[in-house]
Amino acid sequence: MPIPVITSIISAISIISGSALGAWCSWVINNKIHKIQIEEEHVLLKEKQEFETLYKTKEICSTANSIKLDVCTAIFQSIRFLECKNKKENIFIFPINKNYSFSISLLCDYFNIRELSYIYQFYGLIETINNKILMKNYYTNEENFISEYKNVIKKVY
């Protein structure tokens, strides 16, 4: 065989073997990189889920504390009003969370429908008293206010 043909065959074999070796090395490298990326994504996903769980837990605790504060404030103000001799001077608006419906909806996974209804009824009583105070109805009908404040305490207990 002539030398140029042998050289061409050797050159063709080396090009084919180099391409095959390069393809195999690329496949191995890409496979390892892909596995590393998948592991990193799983770690990030797990961290994200843990963060979301922690955030949701904190949000629910904050919401429950807000509702608890509203209940305690209503109890204390109702008792203070009922114990005072001059009731007209001790009528104050109940400070409540204005987004209580959103707060209650966050707790729907933790309470049954009856308990959520009690919480809504409690806020309804507070809103009724606040509206009457804002309309200045307590000067004309103090006995109605006494029954409203008693209803707040009855609803809580």
Number of strands: 0
Radius of gyration: 36 Å
How far from one another are the termini?
108 Å
What percentage of the residues does DSSP assign to strands (E)? under 5%
* Average pLDDT, all residues: 84
Element-by-element helix/strand order: HHHH
Would you kindly provide a written description of the structure presented here, covering whatever features stand out?
The protein has 157 residues and is mainly alpha-helical. It is 80% helix and 0% strand. It has 4 helices and no strands. The protein has helices spanning 3-83, 100-106, 113-134, 142-156. Helix 1 packs across helix 2 and helix 3 (113-134) runs antiparallel to helix 4 (142-156).
Give the helix/strand layout.
Blueprint: H1 3-83, H2 100-106, H3 113-134, H4 142-156
Helix pairs in contact: 1-2, 1-4, 3-4
What's a quick, concise take on this entry?
This protein has 157 residues and is mainly alpha-helical. Helices cover 80% and strands 0% of the residues. It starts with a helix and ends with a helix.
Any key phrases for this structure?
157 residues; 4 helices; single chain
